[in-house]
Amino acid sequence: MLRYRNVIRKSFVLSFILVACQTSTQQEIPNTPTTGKISIWADKTFQYILPPQIDLFSSIYKNTEVGYRFAGEQECIEALLKDSCKVIFINRMLSTQEQKTFEAHNLIIQQTAVARSAIAILSTSLYKQGMSIDELVQILKGEKNYPIVFFGKNNGTVLYCKDTLLKGADFGKNCFSIEDSAEFRKQILEHKEVIGIIDFAFICDDDDKWIRSLKYPQGDTLLIPIRKNSQSPAYYPDQSNIATTDYPLTRTIYCIRRGDDFSLSAGIEAFVAGEKGQVLFKKMGLVPTIDRPRQIEMKPY
What we know:
- By secondary structure, the protein is of the alpha/beta class.
- The protein has helices at about 1-30, 50-60, 75-80, 95-105, 135-140, 155-165, 180-190, 210-215, 240-245, 265-275, 275-285, and strands at about 35-45, 65-70, 85-90, 110-120, 130, 150, 175-180, 195-200, 225, 250-260, 285-290.
- Strands 1, 2, 3, 4, 6, 7, 8, 10 and 11 form a nine-stranded mixed β-sheet that branches.
């Protein structure tokens, strides 16, 4: 009996030592640009483009633990202010008033443009004729009889349409939101009169099977080309037209962080704005803010 008590006692001591060593090891990992633990919040419409960036970063820098969450635009800003996260990704810079709020809390904020996206509009009945911005505004106000379905609520796409296109006015009664991507797709494909509005970042990769089923269900694209006015040519949202801003509904994705310049938040910012992050954005179908030219060296025989 004494023998078994000794075994149990030794096992308990060994377990305590292992836990203590593990805790000590975890505590020894410092918060640097390439080590540590961090939480990131991002606009709901970035569910497709953010995870590959984080996965690549974590695969390169093994001593990092990066968690991320998707929420509404204002929720992301509030989370950054309350220190629920150290980095957010949204479709705009902080307003002057928002920056003053951070300054009042003695918080230093860094804002970096990392990619260009756009507002994408889809329809099974209007994709061939195109649409001007004025016509889109009339539909958003409910002055034309087309139901509009947004993908998600309170995200950057919805707020852009309300704040920029409608100048703060209310949406018409013809506008509603759907949170489920499958239901969003169903509404567009099964109802010819419905117009879908979504962030281009959610449907930018034409190699994705689900995205192709939404954008090209019968071969032709359901994306509606947009013109700046009735006299202008209409352009589709794609990398080329977003880069040149010929497509008029383009926007910029910002990485906004708090923390000093030698922290994991700074490391995340540097990565997505650096060569690997920018190339990955480009491969996914977005427009990188820093498009590095390819260098070709030619040697004589």
